[in-house]
Amino acid sequence: MESGHVDLTHSLGVTVSEDGDVSDVLWEGPAFDAALTIGTTIIGVEGRRFTPAALLRAVAQHDRIALTVRRGDTIRDVQVVVPAGARFPHLEPIAGLIPRIDAILAQRRPATA
Q1: Per DSSP, which regions of 3-95 are E strands?
Q2: I want to staple 45 with a disulfide (CB 3.0 to 4.6 A). Which of 20, 31, 54, 88 is the partner?
Q3: CA within 13 Å, CB half, 68
Q4: CA 63 → CA 39, 98, 105, distances in Å?
Q5: Mean pLDDT over all residues of the chain?
């Protein structure tokens, strides 16, 4: 969880605030397919009150999760497919190639006079 948001873009296709407010939905992702939209609030996960930890745990443990969501005055239950569990992108070095990312991220040396 970073800056008060749970970023599940690469697993559910959604970003959610600590309060359950959906702030981003990936086009044609699992959350999009379940008709979740920006402005929806997740109020329950697998029959329990929403918490970021409960959402992360459900994504890691299930291939389909039940969410209770609120949009305006409407409360409904939705099923969201979790195609591959919790997924987070990361970089992996390619054997035999120079790891250029190290040079890009290295601290620059101050210019000498």
Answers
A1: 5-8, 14-17, 22-25, 41-45, 48-49, 64-71, 74-81
A2: 54
A3: 11
A4: 25, 38, 37
A5: 85
